[in-house]
Amino acid sequence: MRGVAFIVAVTVVAEVGDFHRFDNPRQLMAYLGLTPSEHSTGASVRRGGITKAGSGLARRALIKGAWSYRMQARVSRKLHDRIEGLPKSVRDIAWKGQVRMCRRYRHLVLPGR
Predict the structure, then answer these.
(1) 50 has which bridge partners?
(2) Tens of pLDDT along 14-26?
(3) Across all residues in the chain, what is the average pLDDT?
(4) Which of 3, 18, 99, 100 has a 20 to 30 A CA-CA distance from 66?
(5) Is the pTM of this model over 0.85?
């Protein structure tokens, strides 16, 4: 993944520990404080910024890695060297994920979110 190099990966693994303790990705995101806060009263539901619970170090590393998706999807020379020995099916999945993340970022930014 673009933006997730050795330091980011080691930081997240060291801070989270055992990933098997989470049943689904939503639980992991809640643990890291990457879920939106919510203020609800009756039928009214208002969502706010991220909750910032859990490990600030892991959250900061992931957010800095996510900033690389602001740019257009591409494979840099450094990333090309990292994925060179991987099977084509793995590289195709990674490329599809990169395109999806870049498109998602643009979708969120366009309306001024």
Answers:
(1) 36
(2) 999 999 999 999 9
(3) 87
(4) 18
(5) no
